Amino acid sequence: MGKLYSEIDDELRAFISRQHVFFVATAPLTAEGHVNVSPKGLDTFRILGPKAVAYLDLTGSGIETVAHLRENGRVTIMFCAFEGKPRILRLFGRGRVLEPEDAEWNRLASHFAKFQGTRSIVLMEVERIADSCGYGVPLFEYQRDRTQLLAWAENKGKEGLDRYKAETNSQSIDGLPGLGDPLRPSGG
After folding, report:
1. pLDDT (tens digit per residue) in 119-143
2. Which domain CATH number covers 115?
3. What is the pTM of this model?
């Protein structure tokens, strides 16, 4: 049966650290808007405290999570055990987006490895922590991280990534603002 937790304790921290993928869910305020769920990986998730987490947001074709967080801050992060004992863990809370120009960037970026395609850091204050059985989640064996996204970003280079973000990450599919001006000089 599911259980509620008051904070991310050592046992939950250990569970999270064993997961190779997590999912981020957000939605706009309008009922006509698109709900978004994004899979994430590549050692981009960090626990900052008992009720604070963050992850690196790498350049991709969409900007839904960033746009939704800027509009309303609501976010859920989900971890599923694909190996070992079945379990689903959800972190519910409020998130905000930091870009390299933001004052907190350097302090938070120091928690992560450097990736060529990093476009933002998503910082989340966790309000609710709940797990459930995960009995319906299939077992999969982890092989390795994919390298295509990192190779793509390296191949594009900084200027190419800036152009790509300006073309594809300035607004969401629902027309909400995404990234700031990706072509302005980076401070981070």
Report:
1. 999 999 999 999 999 999 999 999 9
2. 2.30.110.10
3. 0.93
Q: What is the pLDDT of residue 183?
A: 54
Question: Which residue range forms the structural domain that includes residue 87?
Answer: 3-168
Residue 154 CB neighbour total at 10 angstroms: 14
As a whole number of angstroms, the distance between CA 90 and CA 22 comes to: 10
Asked, for residue 184, whether it belongs to a domain, the answer is no
Residue 57 lies in a domain: yes
* Number of domains observed in the structure of the chain: 1
Per-residue DSSP letters for 95-154? EEEE-TTSTTHHHHHTTS---TTEEEEEEEEEEEEEEE--TTSPP--------HHHHHHH
Q: Is residue 164 part of a domain?
A: yes
| pLDDT tens column, 56-96 | 999 999 999 999 999 999 999 999 999 999 999 999 999 99
